Write the structure tokens for this entry.
Amino acid sequence: MKSILTIAILLMSAATFAQSPVKWSYASKKVSEGTYEVRISASVSNPWHIYSQASPEDAATPTKIVFKKSPLLTLQGTAKENGKMISKFEESFGKTLKFYEGQVEFVQIVKVKGKARTKISGTIEYMVCNDHECQPGEPVDFSVALN
């Protein structure tokens, strides 16, 4: 009976750990001829938070969006962050870090060369923390149609 209970607890623990506290969604919006906003949204479960792209790399892992190169696409600047940014000194890292709780949206302006129908894809790297622990998020691959 003990072994069955132990196995059940281990399976529940593994299932809980496997569920990321961050859910990602993606969309694009045409803003003018050949120009699109690519929106990458993170919904972060309470009590977790996700770090800004502007957090120092020698502390918590900042969110990093890496777009795959395409001869049809040109990125305009870097992705902007929309959300309520929190700046807080975190003793565990010994630094002031920037992060988001709840929701954050990363918006990248993309220009498409010609009138081709295409998509943009890439990978998101991130870390989530709460007041007691941090978890490196599994890299997330994404693809968004631009049409």
About this structure: Residues 73 and 133 are 39 Å apart (CA to CA). The helical segments are 2-18. The first helix runs from residue 2 to 18.
